[in-house]
Write a structure and sequence with these properties.
Pfam families: Abhydrolase_3. The chain has 488 residues and is α/β, with parallel strands linked by helices. Helices cover 35% and strands 15% of the residues. It folds into two domains: 54 residues, no CATH class; 402 residues, Rossmann fold, CATH 3.40.50.1820.
């Protein structure tokens, strides 16, 4: 996105009344969030609400993607080594298709994606660089990778999936985040450029994520890295990246469940039959695991959040272009409505997490809290180790957007410590902490019973109603012309 002074002025000038009102209400303590937020947080969140809310001007999908996936360049305390890995045999794709069929009801409609080359980049912490220092211009991608490896202090490899509601953003925009994860974990980050919807609906992104994991374990001939043991790999992601993490984990669990007890599943990958083990752990930041957007906090926990509610999303407008509306038309960007309750689409629908590696959750007082709390509590009941960190009065993915907030470095340290410790094999027990806004005081919470009172039956009922809501959009004829826009 363009960041010149003139572009910034053009963006902010129409928002002047909003900025002045926000500052005034905050200064007079008339805002309901004034006791928990500083002025900068208040302005940032209110600006985000204005930019992505129902009153934002309509644009086309491809234009939004062009703005949000633009590479800002590499500068500061980050190593970035880009890779493009060759495609493998069809076996990985077919194995995933079988899992989708086995886990579904048979009523889901979905498109079988083709295998394609994997694009990603290695990120690490570049300690000696100035904050505004560009990357070395005379280094090859291999030399950047080698330089990054010299700065690692642990064996941790984080397989990172970016957020963006499955249709926005790009690994390039996440370099400050992945660099910080590398710093806090002492390791390195493999950041994946998965295919975006609506051009590439479910399960294209999942196939890319699965391929990325196998490429770490069993590098293709053109990869710069040596094989990475599974017990040194942690999946991590924020928001829709949390969808990728939990869907990939469920895919792996299903592949393991389909094999005789005690045997390790395998697949043919780049000419070899290779093992498919489970990773060391999974680190989730405000994960989006219910694509139907249906649990109570989605509509009820809006005070501190900026995400649009389902009712606002139902009225969103995209100008018609080559990407949207799709043919055949659908209401949900990521998948056809018939697939919304599939466990690999909405991992909240998955009931069996019993053999999962340890899970880490970092959430705010946000609209996705209920679904995250349900999954955490369900996993603990099935014997999975869960580390829960909840930040009072914080919005969705707050640490990435509010770097000045005193809770941001706490989140980063907690996530990095989890990644480092789970790879090091340290004994880890289920524990939960709520961290107060401003003071950062900590109080314990019972992860087994104290996160939510929403039972599995209620969850299923909410998700079915959410699916029905989205299906009704599809049955309304899909297309309503509003000043050249498409309302879905």
């Amino acid at each position: 996105m363009e960041s010149s002074p003139s572009a910034l002025l053009k963006l902010l000038l129409p928002k002047t009344p909003l900025l002045m009102k926000t500052a005034l209400w905050h200064g007079l303590s008339l805002s309901p969030t004034a006791a928990k937020w500083d002025l900068r947080t208040s302005i940032t969140v209110n600006m985000l609400r204005e930019m992505i809310g129902p009153n934002s001007p309509p644009s086309s999908i491809t234009k939004v993607q062009a703005l949000t996936t633009k590479d800002p360049g590499v500068k500061g305390k980050v190593w970035a080594s880009k890779v493009k890995l060759a495609t493998a045999e069809d076996n990985v794709r077919q194995l995933m298709f079988k899992a989708i069929d086995d886990m579904g009801t048979g009523e889901e409609n979905w498109t079988k994606p083709e295998t394609q080359s994997l694009e990603a980049e290695w990120n690490g912490f570049r300690a000696a660089a100035r904050d505004d220092e560009p990357e070395p211009a005379d280094m090859s991608e291999q030399e950047k990778y080698d330089a990054m490896m010299k700065e690692t202090t642990s064996k941790t490899t984080v397989l990172y999936f970016h957020g963006g509601a499955m249709y926005l953003l790009d690994p390039a925009t996440y370099r400050p985040t992945t660099s910080r994860i590398a710093r806090e974990s002492g390791g390195r980050v493999f950041s994946v450029r998965y295919r975006l919807s609506p051009q590439n609906p479910f399960p294209a992104a999942l196939l890319d994520c699965f391929t990325a994991y196998l490429s770490l374990l069993h590098p293709p001939p053109d990869a710069p890295h040596a094989p990475v043991p599974a017990n040194e790999i942690v999946f991590a992601g924020d928001s829709a990246g949390g969808t990728c993490c939990t869907a990939l984990l469920q895919l792996l669990l299903q592949i393991h469940r389909s094999k005789p007890s005690g045997s390790t599943p395998t697949v043919r990958f780049h000419g070899k039959e290779v093992d498919i083990p489970l990773p060391a752990g999974v680190a989730l930041t405000s994960p989006w695991i219910d694509i139907t957007r249906s649990l109570p906090s989605i509509e009820g926990a809006t005070l501190y959040d900026y995400l649009p509610t389902p009712s606002a999303i139902d009225k969103r407008e995209f100008r018609p272009d080559s990407a949207w509306p799709t043919t055949p038309k659908r209401a949900e960007l990521y998948c056809q409505s018939s697939a919304l309750l599939h466990p690999l689409v909405s991992p909240l629908a998955a009931q069996d997490w019993s053999t999962s590696p340890p899970l880490f959750f970092s959430v705010g007082e946000e609209m996705l809290r209920d679904e995250d709390a349900v999954l955490a509590q369900r996993a603990v009941a099935q014997g999975v180790t869960v580390v829960w960190r909840e930040f009072e009065a914080m919005p969705h993915c707050f640490a990435m957007l509010l770097e000045h907030n005193p809770g941001a470095p706490v989140h980063q340290q907690e996530l990095g410590s989890f990644c480092r410790d789970v790879v090091a094999g340290k004994t880890m027990e289920t524990n939960g902490v709520v961290i107060e806004a401003k003071t950062l005081k900590r109080r314990g919470v019972d992860v087994a019973k104290g996160l939510t009172e929403i039972g599995d039956g209620e969850v299923e009922g909410h998700m079915r109603k959410g699916k029905e809501r989205i299906e009704r959009k599809e049955k309304r004829g899909h297309r309503t012309e509003v000043e050249g826009s498409v309302v879905l």
